[in-house]
Write a structure and sequence with these properties.
Blueprint: H1 48-72, H2 88-101
Protein name: DDE superfamily endonuclease
GO molecular function, one term: metal ion binding
Organism: Actinomyces ruminicola
Length: 104
């Protein structure tokens, strides 16, 4: 998200004291404080800037959704976590880092 520039919202566009959104979602999450694609108005086409915004949002969403789909195929996740629960965040972070940086 940071690299995409989507978080670079000018402060004057935000309500007083509000931080820029840090979550991304599809059009079903419009109005919930997330970064979402721009919805087309029924009586007019999308502006070029809106299309560019939608492309940026959808590129990020695609990567995240593919990563989640990949995780769902792992058989080890279909069983309970057998290590101490306090170690779960470090374990899953290590597994993800090893998986997504592995180059054969």
């Amino acid at each position: 998200l940071r690299a995409s520039g989507l978080l670079d919202v000018p402060p004057q566009d935000l309500p007083d004291g509000q931080a820029p959104p840090t979550h991304i979602g599809d059009k079903g999450y419009i109005g919930l404080g997330m970064i979402t694609p721009v919805r087309k108005q029924p009586d007019r086409p999308l502006r070029k800037s809106d299309k560019i915004q939608n492309t940026s949002v959808n590129r990020i969403r695609y990567v995240v959704e593919r990563a989640i789909a990949n995780l769902k195929t792992w058989r080890v996740l279909h069983t309970g976590y057998r290590r101490p629960i306090q170690t779960f965040p470090q374990t899953i972070t290590a597994v993800l880092a090893l998986t997504f940086t592995y180059t054969p």
